[in-house]
Amino acid sequence: MKTAIFYHAGCPVCLSAKQQVLDALDKNQFAISVIHLGENISTLADAQLAGVKSVPALVLDGSVFHINFGAALEDLKGEQHA
Fold it and tell me: What does pTM read for this prediction?
């Protein structure tokens, strides 16, 4: 089974994209994970290693697809230290 990881930060752009993307993915072909980086700051490093630069983003079997623009990962790192 292929993997699909949807990274987001809970912003309106992210939430809209999340619903549309999850509805479009074939759950018989993809093991889907949704990661809210605003609530799971510890996963920022994993997102960066996957190539995510901004959210919302979808990683399909290692390929990153940036969707619109909600927030840069650098901005989320700043929230970690706030």
Answer: 0.84
